[in-house]
Amino acid sequence: MFARFKDVALLLGRIGVGVVFLAHGLQKWENGIDGTAKFFEQTGIPLPTLAAIFAIAVEIVGSILFIVGFLTPLVGLGFVVVSVGALLSVHLDNGLTGQGGYELVLVLAVAGLALGFNPGKLSLDHALFGRKREAKQLQDA
User: Most buried residue among 16, 21, 81, 106 by CB atoms closer than 10 A?
Assistant: First the structure.
């Protein structure tokens, strides 16, 4: 029974983290690639247009993949890259807590990483790859 609760908790975690990244990606999408790149340039992010395309793709497409649990390690790493960029370019000078602090960015990065490498059984990764891995482990045992 504990395993079922664990898998539901992991699914809820993926949904929560994915929704937050999706909301940020949709904000960037509304501003457009040019508007997002302009903001990135003002904050000192190198290659701002490429960074804007990457951030929008990770935050929108990656979030959808993360929620359904597909390619979660790759998406989790993408979340870390986007979050570290935001932390260093926008939030670091504001400290950990308070207005504009980096606590949310930090939590999203580590939660995305942890859930990306442990999406649980209620994920496409498990349905497509995990069952094969489990069957092979049983054969090898």
Answer: 21
